[in-house]
């Protein structure tokens, strides 16, 4: 029997397709487009302890083969998420990953505590709950915190250590491609007890309006995602997967089933799909069909046969 | 995938596209259109201009790469439509004026057809008018203004409801001119969009009730809810 299932941090994913934070909301909207219960998992929009209004000015801009975003972590805050969005999340099957942002260590820690408490209570009542925290130390679009934690390994270590102590949930850390040394960063996360590594977040980029003679974005820089970043993201996933034991959730520019297979061959256990959700509102369904065809064509029973073979 | 019935240039840089199919749409809603594989990355939001039993019509202006690609489509070509999305206009009964500026006239044709009592329609253009004949059967009075200020001729007290779509500055002027009067104004907003379905926060706009998503909470907002003081950017 052919199987797409995989395990990360003791959690079973029915397949390696996980929707990336910030591109899939909380899943409700896409549920109107296709059966999202087919997905392996969903990483929700980045949550912060307090609600955030996000950035003013332009938020989206296209580039050749990619897009820049400057959302600035707009989100309803953790309390509203647990109160409102969890009602929908309780009804769906994919693995539920809470993507956690913050602007200082205290915010990260308190946020992780709230999510953990809520999950423990729900589990006691036999209800579905958040399965994993994905610590986002890599958002380029917030002034304080965000990527500031994701550049230097020793600064990041403190956040990872504190959050690790505060949560009983499996912990993934999402790395920035802007890190000084992404392999060192990943090794540090493993040392501090993270059960998985997600990479990559967006690359810090820029766009200038030559007639206004200003940056298009109020925040000056913005985050680049989409097919344009895929070769670099793939190389980073490959480097990291070679150096850590914990599973890697790989992403960056995936826009086809063959892209998914490339990331798995580079060593990713799970892949995450971001910008492609905008290009194809039924991305999940179509990628799964494509992976199945590939496996049949290549006579593969399990993705383990090709994982990390490069 | 849907099939294009026709795609005609009806004025300089302005195209009318008919796409085959049966569509259930509310006035003021939009579709995300795509006629390419991966590049450009994003689909393009385009308002519903008209719906007939066997096709839907869009009116668009060529402003960049995406609309340039739309303009190249020919009869029989395929196009992907996702939607309809957005809240659309609320159907109110009373004395109604529809005010369109430039390509912003697009959603007002299908809108005009929805009222029991024909609305007065005001269409303003910078240098050339287009499609105005199509509005005639659905208008009580039809005013067309080229190269002037379409708002100058409007007696606001004659209306209970105003529906407007056009350049930001025009909609802001309508909001200002009707301030304090007993008339409800609906504006149809534009913002760059990525998902079009409310998942990405790319199209957030600031209102008096906090941030709203133009793609799902809008594109139609009550003028009094909009935060007109905020600096606008697409
Ligand atoms: C709800 C909604 C309904 C719309 N309905 C229509 C319509 O019926 N007919 C029509 O011609 N246009 C409509 N637009 C605008 C249309 O979406 C843009 O003109 C189009 O996306 C530009 O694509 P492009 O690739 O040609 O230009 P790009 O190369 O992407 O950009 C060129 C210029 O177009 C403008 N632009 C880009 N994206 C948008 C956007 N999402 N909204 C507004 N302006 C944008 C910018 O000023 C930019 O400088 C609508 C927009 C929204 C949000
Ligand atoms: C509009 C947008 C919003 C995003 N928001 C978040 C976020 O809140 N938290 C996060 O960890 N990553 C966020 N990301 C990054 C994506 O999850 C992903 O890491 C990145 O886009 C690279 O993958 P892709 O090329 O497939 O999009 C966002 C990306 C986009 C395009
Ligand atoms: S375009 Fe994504 S939320 Fe509106």
UniProtKB/TrEMBL annotation, chain A:
The active site is at 139 (nucleophile). FMN binds at residues 21, 45-46, 99, 136, 174, 200, 226, 252-253, 274-275. It is found in: Cytoplasm. Its cofactor is FMN. It catalyses: (S)-dihydroorotate + NAD(+) = orotate + NADH + H(+); (S)-dihydroorotate + A = orotate + AH2. Residues 4-295 form the Dihydroorotate dehydrogenase catalytic domain. PROSITE patterns: DHODEHASE_2. Pathway: Pyrimidine metabolism; UMP biosynthesis via de novo pathway; orotate from (S)-dihydroorotate (NAD(+) route): step 1/1. Binds 1 FMN per subunit. GO terms for molecular function: dihydroorotate dehydrogenase (NAD+) activity. Its EC number is 1.3.-.-. Substrate binds at residues 45, 69-73, 136, 201-202. The keyword Oxidoreductase applies. Heterotetramer of 2 PyrK and 2 PyrD type B subunits. Catalyzes the conversion of dihydroorotate to orotate with NAD(+) as electron acceptor. Belongs to the dihydroorotate dehydrogenase family. Type 1 subfamily. This is Dihydroorotate dehydrogenase. The lineage of its organism: Bacteria, Bacillati, Bacillota, Bacilli, Bacillales.
UniProtKB/TrEMBL annotation, chain B:
InterPro entries: Cyt_c3_hydrogenase_gsu (IPR012165), Dihydroorotate_DH_ele_sf (IPR037117), Dihydroorotate_DH_Fe-S-bd (IPR019480), FAD-bd_FR_type (IPR017927), FNR_nucleotide-bd (IPR039261), PyrK_electron_transfer (IPR050353), Riboflavin_synthase-like_b-brl (IPR017938). Belongs to the PyrK family. NCBIfam families: PRK00054.1-3 (NF000798). Pfam families: DHODB_Fe-S_bind. Keywords: 2Fe-2S, Electron transport, FAD, Flavoprotein, Iron, Iron-sulfur, Metal-binding, Transport. Its cofactor is [2Fe-2S] cluster. This is Dihydroorotate dehydrogenase electron transfer subunit. It comes from the Bacteria. SUPFAM superfamilies: Ferredoxin reductase-like, C-terminal NADP-linked domain, Riboflavin synthase domain-like. Residues 1-91 form the FAD-binding FR-type domain.
């Amino acid at each position: 029997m052919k199987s797409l299932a995989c395990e990360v941090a003791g959690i079973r994913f029915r397949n390696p397709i996980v929707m990336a934070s910030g591109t899939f909301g909380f899943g409700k909207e896409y549920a109107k487009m296709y059966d999202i219960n087919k997905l392996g998992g969903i990483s929700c929009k980045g949550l912060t302890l307090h609600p955030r209004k996000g950035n003013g000015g332009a938020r989206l801009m296209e580039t050749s083969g990619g897009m820049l975003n400057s959302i600035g972590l707009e989100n309803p805050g953790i309390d509203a998420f647990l109160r409102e969005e969890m009602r929908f999340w309780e009804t769906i099957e994919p693995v539920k990953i809470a993507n956690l942002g913050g602007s200082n260590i205290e915010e990260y820690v308190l946020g992780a505590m709230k999510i953990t408490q809520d999950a423990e209570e729900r589990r006691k009542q036999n209800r579905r709950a958040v399965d994993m925290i994905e610590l986002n130390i890599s958002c380029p679009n917030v002034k304080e915190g965000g990527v500031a934690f994701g550049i230097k390994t020793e600064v990041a270590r403190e956040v990872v250590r504190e959050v690790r102590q505060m949560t009983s949930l499996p912990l993934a850390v999402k790395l920035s491609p802007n890190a000084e040394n992404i392999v060192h960063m990943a090794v540090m996360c493993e040392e501090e007890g993270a059960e998985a590594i997600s990479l990559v977040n967006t690359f810090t980029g820029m766009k200038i309006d030559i007639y206004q003679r200003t940056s298009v974005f109020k925040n000056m820089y913005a985050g680049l995602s989409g097919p344009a970043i895929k070769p670099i993201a793939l190389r980073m996933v490959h480097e990291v997967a070679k150096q850590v034991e914990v599973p890697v959730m790989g992403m960056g520019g995936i826009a086809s089933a063959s892209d998914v297979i490339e990331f798995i061959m580079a060593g990713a256990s799970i892949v995450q799909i971001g910008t492609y959700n905008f290009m194809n509102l039924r991305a999940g369904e179509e990628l799964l069909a494509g992976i199945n065809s590939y496996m049949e064509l290549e006579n593969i029973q399990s993705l383990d046969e090709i994982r990390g073979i490069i | 995938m849907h099939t294009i019935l026709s795609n005609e240039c009806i004025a300089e840089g302005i195209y009318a596209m008919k796409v085959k199919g049966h569509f259930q749409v509310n006035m003021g809603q939009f579709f995300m259109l795509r006629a390419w594989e991966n590049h450009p990355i994003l689909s393009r939001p385009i308002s519903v201009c008209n719906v007939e039993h066997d096709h839907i019509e869009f009116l668009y202006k060529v402003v960049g790469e995406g609309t340039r690609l739309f303009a190249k489509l020919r009869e029989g070509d395929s196009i992907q439509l996702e939607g309809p999305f957005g809240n659309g206009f609320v159907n109110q009964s009373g004395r109604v004026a529809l005010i369109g500026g430039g390509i912003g006239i697009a959603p007002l044709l299908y809108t005009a057809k929805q009222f029991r009592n024909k609305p007065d329609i005001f269409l303003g253009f910078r240098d050339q008018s287009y499609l105005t004949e199509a509005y005639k059967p659905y208008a009580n009075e039809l005013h067309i203004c080229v190269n002037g200020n379409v708002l100058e001729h409007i007696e606001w007290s004659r209306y209970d409801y105003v529906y407007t779509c056009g350049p930001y500055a025009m909609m802001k002027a309508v909001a200002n001119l009707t301030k304090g009067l007993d008339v409800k104004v609906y504006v149809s907003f534009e913002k760059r969009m990525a998902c079009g379905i409310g998942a990405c926060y790319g199209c957030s706009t600031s209102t008096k009730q906090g941030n709203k998503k133009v793609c799902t909470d809008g594109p139609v907002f009550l003028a009094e809810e909009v935060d007109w003081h905020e600096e606008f950017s697409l």
